[in-house]
Amino acid sequence: MCCMKILLLSYYNLPIHLKPCFLYFAVFPEDHIIKVESLVRLWVAEGFIRQCGHKSLEEIGKEYLEDLIDRNLIFVYIRRVTGEVRTCRIHDLLSDLCRSEAQKHNFVLSTNLNTLGHTDITPRLSINGGKWKGTKPTRSLLCFSKWDSTYYNARRFPLLRLFDVIDEYPGDKILQLINSRYVACKSSMLSMSSSISRLWSLQTLVVGGVLILPSEIWQMPQLRHVQARRISLPGPPLDGEKITVLENLQTLSTVKDFKCSKEVTKRIPNVKKLGIVCSAIGSYCLSSLGFLHKLESLSLAFVGMRGLGPHGNMVFPSSLKKLALSESKIPWEDMSIVGSLPNLEVLKLRSNSVVGKKWISNEGEFARLKYLLIHECELEIWESDNTHFPCLEQIHLGIVRLNEFPSDFAEILPLQVIDLHRCENSLLTSAQEVSEQRENLGYDVLQIRALMPGLLRISVQRGINLAARNHPKRNPYVAVRISKQTLKTRVVRKTVNPEWHDDMTVAVLDPSQPIYVTVYDRNMFSADEKMGDAEFDIRPFVQALKMHPNALPHGIISTRISPSSSNCLSEESFIFWKDGNLMQDMCLGLRNTESGQVKLQLQWIDILPGFK
User: Fold this and answer.
1) At CB < 8 A and 24+ separation, what contacts does 35-42 make?
2) Where are the beta strands (DSSP E) in 303-432?
3) Omega within 30 of 0 (cis) for the link into 254
4) What is the distance between the alpha carbons of residues 19 and 80, in angstroms, rounded to a whole number?
5) What is the spatial distance between Cα 533 and Cα 522, in angstroms, rounded to a whole number?
């Protein structure tokens, strides 16, 4: 009780503008890992952030968060190499205080649907489990478990302005939420009609799958963030009508075949984060990227191309801090177009983004680079010295033929981590030699992490409430696919709640590739019918393995992953240690179907035991 009184004083002494930001943490489930990017967008949509000077609302929101961190009310979970907070959490005691104060002042009601009363009225409702029983209207809805979210529509809840669910949600229902400022859902494909322009207040639109937008999107000046796995975006109309400049737009990712002409860049002058996937060379005007003078983060991938990439047409703005390239096929000798960027801090080179066997870096380039990733690129010889990467802190290499590091890398004072994945043994030896040289020079110890290829055992345990449709006696089985490997469970007949308990083992060569799970209904006289699909990311699992290569005591939970619009989880997933083995339990909600979940368990198997 004494401790709670002290914590209450910390809350009471908060400046008036920080109190609603702190109380808002009551919407998140206990022990939830909170993405700062999403948190700040929610604060903006709720109207908590006050404009100050020339800074954007998002920049001010991050300052609010840093203030709460400095006051020890929130703690950092992951901080980026650039210094920005990526994820954060709130201590259990402070979470209890937050919920108590939020509920006392009717600020947030965070509850399970089974305990929610019909008469409960609250401006903000956070749901974590249970079955729908009905409630009074609310202005903000956040749901961290699967349920029938289509109940929330404009007819029942005309004041709804913030809508964040992990379910599928049809586009025609979204178009009825005309007062909405923030919409996030997990639809596998969402096609929006021209009526989207009626959502005049919309600031943030986040979709877990494919998002098809009409040209009317260019007439929505309040937009700040548009994000999906793939976005189909037509160019702005050029019919002489009044030109609308999307001055508030900061995020646009990931757009397929984005025609980034000079005229388009004038429509989005303040965009900070841009993701583009190009499927052909020719009309994408990548040289016009240089006109985006506020751009800080760019992801650029070329797919389905043969021969040389379009590197000669690319011009990057000097404002870039983070750059990710894939299949761009830039010769190593032309890397000056990247190295000369004065503010670049993070560089990710994936899948033939650079070609050639030898990289000779130049003095004066990569002056601020802190994080370098090279994965699946041609590289056998790297010549450099300690003055070429003066700020480099982390090097991540995967599937390269490089045999040794430049010996001068031992003298890069900020260097902290060398991460190797499927590299030559000689490169690991070279990294260890660099580490020894650093110790002899009296520098900080260099952390070397080498993850060799391994096997992942996937236990497909059971299905829950699979879609029966008009055939309650289904014959379901599961197909699991990673890269070119596909494995199947046995068929369980005449049920929509099958118990498989089948173990399958797949080789993990690239942890960044998702694993796809598809449920089928076995038919005797026709093609097997698809009953839904899902996917999951094993990078958090592999990251937990890297963090604790020597295992932790039995029962220790390494990581908790909550359901969100960016994953297929239907309930919280735990990565934990059991008898010296790293395990993960997960329950996946199926997409492209009416209902259904699949329960899995993962276990890592080393090819070379004891060597990670």
Assistant:
1) 35/86, 35/87, 35/564, 36/62, 36/65, 36/84, 36/85, 36/86, 36/87, 36/88, 38/184, 39/65, 39/88, 40/65, 41/182, 41/203, 41/204, 41/224, 41/225, 42/142, 42/162, 42/164, 42/182
2) 322-326, 330-331, 346-350, 354-355, 358-360, 371-375, 381-383, 394-398, 417-421
3) yes
4) 26
5) 15
The DSSP annotation for 490-558 comes to ----S-SS-EEEEEEEEEES-TTS-EEEEEEE--SSSPPEEEEEEEE--HHHHHHHHH-TT---TT-EE
Q: Which of 390, 392, 418, 414 is nearest to 404 (CA)?
A: 418
Scanning the structure block, which residue is given the tokens 């380039």?
365
CB-CB neighbours of 29 under 10 Å: 18
Q: Can you tell me the distance from the alpha carbon of 208 to that of 537, in angstroms, rounded to the nearest whole number?
A: 14
CA distances from 599 to 500, 573, 585 (A): 10, 11, 8
What pairing do the DSSP bridges indicate for beta strands 454-464 and 597-606? antiparallel
CA–CA distance, 356 with 339 (Å, rounded to integer): 17
Q: Write the single-letter amino acid at 316.
A: F
Query: What pLDDT, on a 0 to 100 scale, did the predictor assign at position 612?
Result: 39
Is residue 162 a contact partner of residue 144, using CB atoms and an 8 Å limit? no
Which pLDDT score, from 0 to 100, does residue 123 have? 84
Q: What is the pLDDT of residue 283?
A: 46
Angle (deg, nearest 10), helices 36-46 and 57-70: 110
Token pair listed for 41: 């967008």
Which residues are bridge partners to 529 per DSSP?
A: 521
The low-confidence residues of the chain, meaning pLDDT below 50, are 283, 307, 608-612
Output the CA torsion sign for 6, 8, 12, 17.
positive
Phi and psi torsions of 378, nearest 5°: -75, 115
In 3D space, the residue among 596, 461, 460, 476 whose CA is nearest the CA of residue 529 turns out to be 476
Identify whether the C-beta of residue 160 lies closer than 8 Å to the C-beta of residue 141. Answer: yes
Q: Pick from 383, 448, 382, 440: which is nearest to 415 by CA?
A: 448
Q: Dump pLDDT digits (tens) for 470-504.
A: 676 789 999 999 877 889 999 998 899 999 999 99
Report angle CA 152, 155, 161 to the nearest 5 degrees.
60
Q: Which token pair is 343?
A: 């503010």
Q: Write out the two tokens for 216.
A: 């009317």
Instruction: Write down the pLDDT at residue 148.
Output: 55
Give the tokens for residue 66: 């840093």
